[in-house]
Amino acid sequence: MPGKTPDKEPVDNAGYRGGNNKMKGKGKKGEEEKMTVVVPPSKKKDVEGDVAMDVDDKVEEEDVGEKTVADIKSNFALLDRAVALFDARFTLRALRSVSSIRKRLTPDVLAQVISETYTATSPGAEIAAGLLKAIGREEVQLGGKAGGSEMEIDSEPKAAGKNGVKKEQKEIIPEVDVFLGILTQVLLHDNKQWQQGLEFSRYLIEKVQELNRRTLDSLSAKVYFYFELFAEQLAPLPPSSQSTIVAIRPTLLAALRTAVLRKDTDTQASVIVLLLRSYLLTSHISQADLLVSHTQFPENAANNQVARYLYYLGKVRAIQLLYTEAHNHLTAATRKAPSSACALGFSQTATKLLLVVELLMGDIPDRATFRQPAMEASLHPYFLLVRAVRVGDLEDFESIVAQHGDTFRRDGTYTLILRLRQNVIKTGIRMMSLSYSRISLRDICIRLHLGSEESAEYIVAKAIRDGVIEATLDREKGYMKSKEVGDVYATREPGETFHDRIRACLSLHDESVKVCDCFGEKGDGA
């Protein structure tokens, strides 16, 4: 209505009331009508913005460091329970947490844990000093608090209880010492301090051998594992006979003898696997075979160690031309491999060797193996290799070996793949014997890209003798005549295949019964 003031003032695009009325006229007394303006809060310009960002980053790093310290100390309770209950499952739980801790592990964090765990008068003060020296934090005092890049040491003793009486410090068990030593090994390995890590590993091994406690078995196995890894990285690298892994073999063999006498299953299984790995790296196949024949791998070893042992044993048998045994061991290794993502590398390596062994046996691997999403990219060169062997194209096979030779050498299968050349030739001859009732040696030489007709004659004669093809060779007229193929079910091949499948099922049944018996024994106390 005219003469009345509107209830609401108009709002402009910026959100301020009265924005459309810039200035109203003067009243009777000449006073200007005041405008209602909402002023946004002023942003204080941070002159030292970069410094503020650095402070936030430091605060975040301190939070991550405190959480890592708490995670490490939480494992001490598991180790205490493992010793009190004499149950290795708690020790294994502590070891499984190392993979998540190592991503956040730094020398300052580890030094803080050591400083807060030990005191200058505690029995483990000598070991703590060795740990600090290994990570380059000798200046940190025991019994203090360390944090950040600079260690701040509390000079005052720990506060007493409510009544003013000092609390007695809990005794640190040797399992905690060795666990912190393993974390030190992990830190040195991730920082690529190979020489320092090898020296510290020797020191830690001596401490473990002096203690002789069965509750340290799982921890000592991990100590020897990193001991071998440090030696592999030092120059001269394997397969040189002057490599460091050759020098540490007496230490590993002595540890194996001690583990057998003490019935230390974990260390025994770990050291056997490490020795096999060491012999294969330096191509000492005969020594690896002697080790397998003179030792007995523990039946109740951890599943991961069993998978590794079967893989190395399968590789030894493949080099010794025992392809059937190698195939059985590698098949069992791939089945026992953990299904987690952290074990994908082992599964890929074992599968690659298994594919090559199957080709050397004259079999063609299943195509579904190459369609697994996690292995499709890594197995692509082997897929091309299988395709060339299946077709019997020697020229394609040689080009694939030349193109992906570096990949095959890195996988350790190059020497075995070179043996496939004869299999490719045999496959090509078999396909030609099925396609032609009679074919000249010259045509065989041209199709297989052989050097001469004499070499083609020798290869055909060897294929006939080995039973690869059913044919006769006429040397005077220079051709190969194939025999008519009868009913395959009238031969021994279906019976042999059926027997192999029955044997595989029976072995799987026996392993399942053993596993059920083990769980049945532990089920009452679990």
From TrEMBL:
Q: This protein's superkingdom? A: Eukaryota
Instruction: Give the species.
Output: Cercophora samala
| Region of interest called Disordered, as start-end residue ranges on this chain | 1-49
Q: Where is the composition biased (Basic and acidic residues)?
A: 1-11
Keywords in alphabetical order: Proteasome
Give the GO terms filed under biological process for this record.
regulation of protein catabolic process; ubiquitin-dependent protein catabolic process
Which GO CC annotations does the UniProt entry carry? proteasome regulatory particle, lid subcomplex
Kindly provide the name given to this protein in its UniProt entry.
PCI domain-containing protein
GO MF terms here are:
enzyme regulator activity
Q: Which family does it belong to?
A: Belongs to the proteasome subunit S3 family.
* Limits of the PCI domain: 307-487
